[in-house]
Automatic annotation (TrEMBL):
Its EC number is 2.5.1.-. Substrate binds at residues 19-23, 31, 35, 63-65, 67, 69, 184, 190-192. Its cofactor is Mg(2+). Mg(2+) binds at D18, E203. The gene is uppS. This is Isoprenyl transferase. The keyword Ribosomal protein does not apply. It comes from Hallella bergensis DSM 17361. Catalyzes the condensation of isopentenyl diphosphate (IPP) with allylic pyrophosphates generating different type of terpenoids. One of its GO terms (biological process) is polyprenol biosynthetic process.
Length: 255
């Protein structure tokens, strides 16, 4: 298998970590066993993304819709969040930790641990690992719309001045760039209410591998697929190739 081109590593990778329960079922285990194994994969992929030079890694951990799951599974997941926020995964890799989502819906001890971890890792600089927890795009867009409406109502903003930049400022993800690459594991071919605004021009990669079995080689395969695509952002293929040629010539002149 081809190795990723280290000069073209995506700046921001977002992942829908799917398949924990199905993986556990195939092992004859409870769903909680799959979630625990999924945490081990998070450690593995976080370390590898840091090594590769990825700057932002966003992980879809618990959606707003997941609150409808059985209470015992929710409790197990919340407990897993608490135990998985170890300093080693962040401090060893110089990783900053952030959270996006409705934190106020989470148990108080989970909220406290999340805030503690964010504060403790705030000065880390190699990569930012973002956990989407109690998150959904429709919640985020609704929240942003409400905030903008309040600003208009207060006379701080005119309706005609609302543009994409204004909307971006009110998104929970306003501190980071949009994902370059979105990976979904587990075989399903859908986005599941995840970063719908932000992935407008992201490259999408779907694989059948369940998240607990996802390893460095699988990440490399996704990145190589991304690197073999031409990102046009609405332009023609000829325009992109011409701009790429001009950029390369400029870089050579600087050397």
């Amino acid at each position: 298998m081809a190795e990723p081109d280290m000069t073209k590593i995506p700046r921001h990778i977002a992942i829908i970590m799917d398949g924990n329960g199905r993986w556990a079922a195939e092992q004859g285990k409870e769903r909680s066993f799959g979630h625990q194994a999924g945490v081990d994969t998070v450690r593995c992929i976080t370390s590898e993304c840091t090594r590769l030079g990825v700057k932002f890694l966003t992980l879809y951990t618990f959606s707003t819709e997941n609150w409808s799951r059985p209470q015992d599974e929710i409790s197990a997941l919340m407990g897993l969040v608490l135990t998985s926020l170890e300093d080693e995964i962040f401090m060893k890799n110089n990783v900053r930790f952030r959270v996006v989502g409705e934190m106020e819906r989470l148990p108080k001890d989970v909220q406290d641990k999340l805030k503690e971890t964010m504060d403790h890792t705030a000065k880390n600089s190699a990569m930012t690992m973002v956990v989407a927890l109690s998150y959904s795009s429709r919640w985020e867009i609704t929240k942003a719309t409400r905030e903008i409406a309040e600003e208009v109502k207060a006379g701080k903003l005119r309706p005609e001045d609302i543009n994409e930049d204004i909307v971006n400022e009110h998104m929970a993800t306003n501190f980071m760039p949009d994902p370059d690459l979105l990976i979904r594991t587990g075989g399903d071919l859908r986005i599941s209410n995840y970063m719908l605004w932000q992935i407008a021009y992201s490259e999408l990669y779907f694989c059948d591998t369940y998240w607990p079995a996802f390893r460095e080689k699988d990440l490399h395969r996704a990145i190589v697929s991304y690197q073999n695509r031409q990102r046009r952002f609405g332009k023609t293929e000829e325009q992109v190739e011409q701009e790429s040629g001009v950029k390369q010539e400029t870089e050579k002149e600087k050397e």
